[in-house]
């Protein structure tokens, strides 16, 4: 047996990947026109108040009682999202190998539905903040593993937050991968043990490399694929 084959045999099986949404699969982009349409009551009201947004945007300008000063938390109409480069490629990679993919976010269900509709990447299950308790509690990740009938030890949690995504994954007993594009968390070895992820990457393509290099990507069975 070759050394490479022996190494492949020693790899841990991985049968599911669970992603965070905001900051991991997407980049939030505030849609100010949509925000004003929502608050003012539709297209007609927005058109009748063309100066509202410009007034509210001037530093020190008085704020109208009808003009919002900030987006409504969790509102699907107040923010749009831009899919991260490589998100669809990574999903295609997993699908080709029949590796399950799920999603856990602290955003609202309406935002998840919009994400699925806009980018055509459906994650099952996709748990939003309406699922309680939400991360960093391990409950949502354990729920996904139970739904898949896959142990957490064969699942990896991928996200951009140490305190939410990584802690959730570690508490559930899953592998963890931190996406840190800007280096804000510092070197991997400097992180406290209670929040230190198993892997740390600076881009989504690196996630794919981690999966290929460190895991035996075991496809789910035909029966499991119907869950």
UniProtKB/TrEMBL annotation:
**InterPro entries, A to Z:** HAD-like_sf (IPR036412), HAD-SF_hydro_IA (IPR006439), HAD_sf (IPR023214)
Q: Name one GO molecular function term.
A: phosphatase activity
Looking up Pfam families in the UniProt record yields: Hydrolase_like
- Cellular component annotations (GO), alphabetically ordered: cytoplasm
Q: Which domain of life does the protein's organism represent? A: Eukaryota
Query: Which residues does the annotated region (Disordered) include?
Result: 48-81
What organism, scientifically named, is this protein from? Triticum aestivum (Wheat)
Q: Source organism lineage?
A: Eukaryota, Viridiplantae, Streptophyta, Embryophyta, Tracheophyta
Which protein are we looking at? Haloacid dehalogenase-like hydrolase domain-containing protein
Q: What SUPFAM superfamilies does the database record attribute to this sequence? A: HAD-like (SSF56784)
UniProt xrefs under Gene3D superfamilies: 1.10.260.80, HAD superfamily/HAD-like (3.40.50.1000)
